[in-house]
């Protein structure tokens, strides 16, 4: 089949239903672009859209939606709880099938050029698509948000990667990038002692020296009499779910605590679960093309 | 998405490439019918085709292929190592998505009527589509093969389920049915003692009182210094792969023998592996619609 990507564009509008509907329209009506989820948050005043499809239709729909967003969103009057620098705040591309990460980064960069040509919104590249190492991290690019960037954009250190060194008068700037698929994964433990979950979260997360592609916190599930190690796995190929599970199990054993259950939150690529089935059952020489549904998807193109 | 079925028609031709090619043609060229595999065996003089698709295009392609088979295959002169009663020997339908087994059995029966109308080949129904309990088993329907059935078809006990009580002069009869997806699954053990594999196969298979939907034999993998419990799981929902694996592991422990690896042979539905990932990782409340590829397949229709 053709290349397949996920894209999760974030728009700075979470309150006006008619604007949200108008922005979502091209994602619903562009053949080959599949709208998986569309979630508006009033407090954040932000719309998070989840798309899957081939690169071309996804890009076409993104451009159309961006033009609608520019017409309806004015950053000069926008307020909301989530950090943002533009009406079309951030567009991350994720490779799903038949695409490498370098190819996806190239896609993000060429889309950034097209995006600027068609919307006149300046573009910053982040994560795998970053052109400057310091711009890999989204929070660095977005520092000070729209209000600060409006002045600082003239400073060469904050010049956009594409476009003139000034923000779009209404739509600000857009951050475009490439990153791996993020799996939200929780491990629930049979204790009411939240300290156990917090210690394990500290042991496993990258920020305190654990697994390189895991973020995590420990919290109590009071109603259930359990605690939870709540994790984001930012690279499930390098840090597969079975390894994360066994890591938590091993640490929990130190406290005489059992893994009661795990939770996969939201969407997940088939490979993230297959690798765990392969591990636990020791399946030798398995090829994902043996899975009927994946083969069919390839054949349907 | 629409209903999805697998179908594995068997044709009594495994030697003449031009005939094999002609029979395969409609499976390749009917939109909505996806040809997964096409395997001719010279000794068996038999062609086994593996199809996936929506019921309508799969049936259309089957009728077209059957008409070609009737033109080129004469059961009066056919010889081969595999039991058979007709040019289009057997057509099993398997429900894959959005279809229950009773619906699939109905599909098999209505297809049987259409098949007879369009080809004049009489039809027997087997397994879940059987109209008489004694015809559930394929080997009963095929008893004595083409040569015996030609005479015995006049006997009411062997009358076809659809059509006059006589065979098609060239194409014999066809057995049509509905059955669950069959998963070929092997468990390789770290011993050279084939008796261990044979004992475990005996313990697990239905025919000697084990799991109801498992067939199995024990054999030696001499080159590898291992033995194998070679299994067919005829209902992976009732006898999931993790349970089969753990059953074998428990029995092997009695002999101080380890499960070295397992093998999934050929195609497998995603659910057969997902259920194992769910079991080993204790994933709570998982919905297959969370898997991107399955969701996409639904949306692509």
From TrEMBL, chains A, B:
Leading EC class: transferase
UniProt GO molecular function: folic acid binding; glutamate formimidoyltransferase activity
Cytoplasm listed as a keyword: yes
Pathway, per record: Amino-acid degradation; L-histidine degradation into L-glutamate; L-glutamate from N-formimidoyl-L-glutamate (transferase route): step 1/1
Localization per Swiss-Prot or TrEMBL: Cytoplasm
Gene Ontology BP terms: L-histidine catabolic process to glutamate and formamide; L-histidine catabolic process to glutamate and formate
InterPro entries hit by this protein: Formiminotransferase_C, Formiminotransferase_C_sf, Formiminotransferase_cat, Formiminotransferase_N, Formiminotransferase_N_sf, FormiminoTrfase_cat_dom_sf, FTCD
Coiled coil spans: none
SMART domains referenced in this protein's UniProt entry, alphabetically: FTCD, FTCD_N
One of the record's GO cellular component terms: cytoplasm
Alphabetical keyword list: Cytoplasm, Folate-binding, Histidine metabolism, Transferase
EC number: 2.1.2.5
Annotated ranges, domain Formiminotransferase C-terminal subdomain: 181-295
Domain of life: Bacteria
Residue ranges constituting the Formiminotransferase N-terminal subdomain domain according to the UniProt record: 3-180
Official protein name in the record: glutamate formimidoyltransferase
